[in-house]
Amino acid sequence: MHCLFHQSCHLAGFQDEVMIRKMKWWSKIDFSESNFYGAFFHLLSVAMAICSLLSSEWILIEEPAVNSTTSTDNSELFFDVSRSDHCTNIGCRDFWRPARFGGFLDNKGKTHIAFHSSERVLLDCVTPMVANLFYVLIALCFVIALTSSLSFIMNLLPPPSGFLQWLKRNTIFEMCNMLLTLCVCVVALIAQCEVARVRQDCDVSLGGGVFMVCLAGMMCFFAATSTLRHS
């Protein structure tokens, strides 16, 4: 009984010490340094980055009306494409789950690439290079969402001192996100060129997913401006 009483007293003392440390940390926070406008802009940046990750319209492909029927007839002659989908758009959503590639030769000796994802099958649209580029885009968008989330917290609960305060006052996270946004645009343009190389008879353009990331970068710029004015 004496041992149990001693352990319970030790546990209660440890909990009290943790509560005291939390109260000391909470008392060091100067809420007058909170930047609610910056936090709001970072929240919008997180939302835009997540929406871009869930978007399937990063690259839009418009097939010519005249050639589409011809290509369909040829595909029925050379290969069974009854289970394939029309490749009108590509986005990060297509690469969240494991996918695989396949290939075949038609009766004319032309090579075709088949991309099998969990939701659809695309022919002559997604190459391994395009898939690798989209994996890079997913990583960049994830980093943007993560750093914007950290900046959102630091704008609501400003760090009292030290390295985190230096990061906040000098808008390091915001500048990194704007640089990452530029990298996303460059990688997306490379992916667009690769898809245009494969689909030479189609009009290939950038879609809403890229513009969502650009909006996320713009929100980071507004947050940085608000932080500099606030400090």
Automatic annotation (TrEMBL):
- InterPro entries with a match to the protein in the record: TMEM127_TM
Q: Boundaries of each Transmembrane protein 127 transmembrane region domain copy?
A: 125-227
- From which domain of life does this come? Eukaryota
Tagged with keyword DNA repair: no
Keywords of this entry: Membrane, Transmembrane, Transmembrane helix
According to the record, the segments passing through the membrane are: 36-61, 133-157, 178-198, 204-224
An example Pfam family from this entry, by short name, is TMEM127
Name of the protein described by the UniProt record? Transmembrane protein 127 transmembrane region domain-containing protein
Source organism: Ancylostoma ceylanicum
